[in-house]
Model the fold of this input.
Amino acid sequence: MSRRPPGTPPLASDIAAGLSRLRGALDDGVSHPDLDPPRSARKGKPWPVLPPVEALDAGVPLREVLRQGVRDALRTSLANGFYLPVRGALATYGRLPVAWYGQQEAHWIGYYDMLHRLGFARYGSADADHLDDWAVLARSCGWWWPGEDVCVVVERPAVIATEPVPGSWHGQVRLRQGGAGPVEYRDGWRPPLNR
Done:
């Protein structure tokens, strides 16, 4: 059994633990009968990814259609299409600190917000307020790194050039291939993306 290191945990650990607790509480707040899993489980087989109407006609549960069309589609665009390539490029300069991705966190924030707005979820007031705090961060900034005494907050990029992900059903995008760097900040800096 591993022992906890002595001393106070870093602030980033507290934020990560709080975020994990929040996402668990938000999952628990999803309670609409239309989102209950089907009685006959697909034991180990993933649901097909199809356009929404076709997916529902094929028996894909509404909860899965919403997950694919909102959370997964946004994650493909924001994580796979932006912050993972940029983080990989920055890692060539050395180890990166624990970071949160500001506007690129919108995939999970938007998913839980959509469920609440459609009446498919009910969150406790503290959890709803906490989700709202994350939504404000997503609307306000790019990446941020919390430190014990200082928090570094990066502006959102001025330019993000994208193109559609081939074969996607839900409008996913990725960073544009070729040409000038697809990401530029207001000061003119472009991450060194080798694409």
Notes: The helical segments are 11-28, 52-57, 62-90, 106-117, 125-140. The longest strand covers residues 144-146. The CA atoms of residues 19 and 145 lie 15 Å apart.
